[in-house]
From TrEMBL:
Pfam hit, one: His_biosynth
Swiss-Prot/TrEMBL keywords: Amino-acid biosynthesis, Cytoplasm, Histidine biosynthesis, Lyase
Matching InterPro entries: Aldolase_TIM (IPR013785), His_biosynth (IPR006062), HisF (IPR004651), IGPS_HisA/HisF (IPR050064), RibuloseP-bd_barrel (IPR011060)
Keyword Cytoplasm listed: yes
Gene assigned in the entry: hisF
Catalytic activity: 5-[(5-phospho-1-deoxy-D-ribulos-1-ylimino)methylamino]-1-(5-phospho-beta-D-ribosyl)imidazole-4-carboxamide + L-glutamine = D-erythro-1-(imidazol-4-yl)glycerol 3-phosphate + 5-amino-1-(5-phospho-beta-D-ribosyl)imidazole-4-carboxamide + L-glutamate + H(+)
One example GO MF annotation: imidazoleglycerol-phosphate synthase activity
Function noted in UniProt: IGPS catalyzes the conversion of PRFAR and glutamine to IGP, AICAR and glutamate. The HisF subunit catalyzes the cyclization activity that produces IGP and AICAR from PRFAR using the ammonia provided by the HisH subunit.
Descriptive protein name: Imidazole glycerol phosphate synthase subunit HisF
Pathway: Amino-acid biosynthesis; L-histidine biosynthesis; L-histidine from 5-phospho-alpha-D-ribose 1-diphosphate: step 5/9
Active site positions, chain numbering: D9, D128
Family the entry assigns: Belongs to the HisA/HisF family.
GO CC terms, sorted: cytoplasm
Main enzyme class: lyase
Length: 251
């Protein structure tokens, strides 16, 4: 069954949204928004502390605790996760999974150690990918600003080998553009690994979610703007998915 996942990008305690990881606009309170999504059919949530890594600080444990107290669906937390202690703290605050991006690039063994200690099902490898002129996709870190010099497809395979339970794949090129998911990138990663992949970056309408499910074998579709701005509701997305033969849970 395919999952619909709203994403809350959090900076300074507020949900924000930008384009290509820049030009951030305030969207609202993360706890209130998470609660509304939980009540209105979201299958899971992703909470990203988008400036933790670039600002060199820890993830917002207080927000995680309050979100956990106010929702009834699983949620993953990413941003600023650098050590096993960070993971322990975030899971202890109530998160079901943690997303690891920049820290895994710096020290891939962290994924293996985390999977062994907490279980693969709790470890989400976040891959932010940008297409380069030669057609390859490079892994980007630090909020999509820094080229890690890694091929995104090969890196995704390695993350699976290290023990990651799933991949959260974001197209840096499509982020906030609302012109659809990067189907070529998503398919390349999905076809390269056997663990679930969540497609992210570029969703502008319900049809884009149907499209990414029909044209790739991704397990979940993540979106932010269309839900935050009330362009479409999760129940409307699920209705369209069902009408098009995509297997989703009832809202």
């Amino acid at each position: 069954m395919k999952k619909i996942i709203p994403c809350l990008d959090v900076k300074d305690g507020q949900v924000v949204k930008g384009i290509n990881f820049e030009g951030l606009r305030l969207m609202g309170d993360p706890v209130e928004m998470a609660s509304n999504y939980s009540k209105n059919g979201a299958d899971e949530l992703v909470l990203l502390d988008i400036s933790a890594t670039t600002e060199g600080r820890d993830t917002m444990v207080d927000v995680v605790k309050r979100v956990a107290e106010n929702i009834s669906i699983p949620f993953a937390v990413g941003g600023g996760i650098k050590t096993l202690d960070d993971i322990s703290r975030v899971l202890g605050a109530g998160a079901d999974k943690v997303g690891i991006n920049s820290a895994a690039v710096d020290r891939p063994e962290l994924i293996k150690e985390a999977a062994e200690k907490f279980g693969s099902e709790k470890i989400v490898a976040a891959v932010d990918a940008k297409q380069f002129p030669d057609g390859s996709w490079h892994v980007m870190t630090h909020g999509g600003m820094k080229d890690a010099g890694l091929d995104a497809v090969q890196w995704s395979k390695m993350l699976e080998e290290l023990g990651a339970g799933e991949i959260l794949l974001t197209s840096v090129d499509r982020d906030g553009m609302k012109d659809g998911y990067d189907l070529e990138l998503t398919k390349a990663i999905v076809d390269a690994v056997d663990i679930p992949v969540t497609a992210s970056g570029g969703c502008g309408n319900a049809g884009h979610i149907v499209e990414v499910f029909e044209k790739t074998d991704c397990a979940s579709a993540l979106a932010a703007s269309i839900f935050h701005e009330n362009t479409v509701s999760i129940s409307e997305v699920k209705k369209l998915c069902s009408e098009q033969g995509v297997n989703v849970s009832d809202s």
